[in-house]
Design brief:
Blueprint (H helix, E strand, L loop, with lengths): L13 H11 L5 H5 L4 E12 L8 H8 L6 E15 L13 E13 L7 E14 L3 E13 L12 E14 L4 E14 L7 E15 L2 E14 L3 E2 L12 E2 L3 E15 L2 E14 L6 E13 L4 E13 L7 E14 L4 E15 L10 E16 L2 E14 L6 E13 L1
Antiparallel strand pairs: 1-2, 1-20, 2-3, 3-4, 4-5, 5-6, 6-7, 7-8, 8-9, 9-12, 10-11, 12-13, 13-14, 14-15, 15-16, 16-17, 17-18, 18-19, 19-20
Length: about 425
Amino acid sequence: MSPKNSPRKNKKTIAASAILLVCLFPAKSAYPRLLGDAIKPFARIRGLYDSNVFRVRDRDQLKALTGDDRLSDFITVYSVGTTLRYGLPGYQSPDQSADQSVSLLLRTDSYRYGHYTGLNEDQEELQGDIAMRFLDRVSLRIEGGHSKLLEPRRDYQSALPSMIALNTAGIIIGYDLPSGLGAGAAFRRERLLYSIFADRDETTRDYSGALSYAPSPYSRFEISYERMSAGYDYPQPAFSSGGTGLGSGLIKSDNSGDAVKALVHKIFSPKTDLTLSAGYLRRSYQFGIRSFGGLIWSAGLDFRATGKLRLFALAARQLHDEVFENQFYSVNDSFAAGAGYRMTGKIKASLSGTVLNRSFRGAAATGTPERRDTICLLKESIGWRPEKGLSFDLSCRYEVRHSNSEGFDFRDNEVGLTAGYEF
């Protein structure tokens, strides 16, 4: 899939204007007091050094992609926004965990590059939800949002920035009995639009239901079923094999799928809890050769060693459909581990590492080699909160990808310093 000459530009939204207006209100004005101090504007500035902006193998590959051979750049990110949370009259649980409220997040981020100024872009995000509870048993949550976000560079290669416009809407209904039995149902719709990869524009719909049982506050069991569908606006490149029966030219990758999962969550002590889930996923396409299925699972352990030290580990297998030429789907096996340490009441640090083995399947049926990637990611950060509302964060990030396909290897280092204030 080749990019278009220039990305589609969205007009400035009302969200950005609303953020500016809210941030201009004095922090102690009558307006926030009227809502019970529910409005919390914030502002942040981040300086970032990125050693490999385009996630390429070397300068030669970068020169062929952009016409420039400078791998690194300095980036400044300006962020402003506000959160709003307002309690609604009605039922309130004794522990305040099931209150009725309206929540809203508005945020905009401006990315400004020192050398590659053609990559300058603005992200925007508007998310909201309404939570209600009736008769201490029935819960209802309605949520929706709009965002325009930068696609991670590891997921594509282009001299242009790829923006993803995402519109979401959903509803979640739950019913809980005093015996610990519960039932729930949910619907979610997502609309994705890509600025330079229009053949990936899609609409997804997910319907799900679950039955759960919590015999005590320390354990929970759940069985769920999910029905998924995805429809693409445009066809994708057909597979280049001579024996697939798909022909040449373009085909559409519309598909539907089903997933069944079982989950167990157990708290062994105030320090240790374990979450296990396992299930089966199946996706079906118009062209049967593209259909796939397999086991999916995850296992997570959280251990609070002391009042200051927290450790965690997570392993998982997931299956994802793909729209790249000659690749049907991918098997993603990951393992992550990390630690968080609170040095003082104002200083905390974290360290985490992730290894992801990603195997693209289906290429063997088309007569081309199957792509296999191994991605290693290491992140460290330290945060300081000298005063209420004021924060400083120093972060480091190292990422490397090894691939058996030509042109997908890269190494990248990032170092960032962030200063922020929440009014």
